[in-house]
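Continuing the batch. This is chain 6 of the set; chains 1 through 5 are on the previous pages. Same settings as before, nothing changed between runs. Recording input and output for traceability.
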Amino acid sequence: MDDKKVMKLKDIQTLFHKTLDTIYGKQEVDSFFYLLTEHIVGLNRMALALEPNAIINKKNEEVFSDALSRLEQQEPIQYIIGETEFYGLMFKVNPDTLIPRPETEELVEWIIKNHSTQNQDVLLNILDIGTGTGCIAISLAKHLPNAKVYALDVSKNALEVARQNAENNDVSVQFINDDILNPDGFKSNIKFDIIVSNPPYVRQLEKQEIKPNVLNHEPHLALFVDDHDPLLFYRAICEFSTIYLKEKGTLYFEINQYLGKEMVDLMQTFSFKNVELKQDLFDNDRMMKAVKL
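Output for chain 6:
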């Protein structure tokens, strides 16, 4: 392949706007372009501003062209790049894993804030159910260094990504392949101080609210539940917690913003106490904690 430098980056940026602005808007297209420029040629936005006439070789031009085509099909930029940032750490992602969301960062922050002092005094056992990329489990392991962290997922492919992410972020997490809806394979003498989960919670009736880049590309296994039983996973995790969560242990959930009241009722059905519903930055009911007493 001829690697002769042939095209200016600013011309590629113009092409991105011409092709994608009607889909995403100018600001988001700029964001895509700068992410790709740093990923492909190692130039961040500041460096590019200092080199407005920077040019690239044919090979890199083809990488940009492929990314442009995929963005035109509304494939998530995170899958195109193959990684994303979450809570200050980098995580590999692919179509087997849900892309971590800022709302989930808020859940992680809440747990760390609530348990940092406790973590200094005792060894916490933490279980993340439905770990996906491992973003919750790995972030907790990184910021609660005295904790022993476990992470469970039904998808072997997702667990392989999570294992790579744990290694890349230099933390120890024990990964478990099991189905929380039928957890016959989970046999442990361990009782957990914290169980956390961001399970599937989007109802089929809410599909019209989901953007095409999510609906057409991210794994439905990790997103959707049946309209007639939207709390299926939460109920299963509560049942699991009656066995494996310590007395005075804490259960944390990310939840469907429309089902806050139903989640409070569910927690009370299982006799959890100190139930707390927390809003995210967009003022949606998004997180919940409850204590086993």
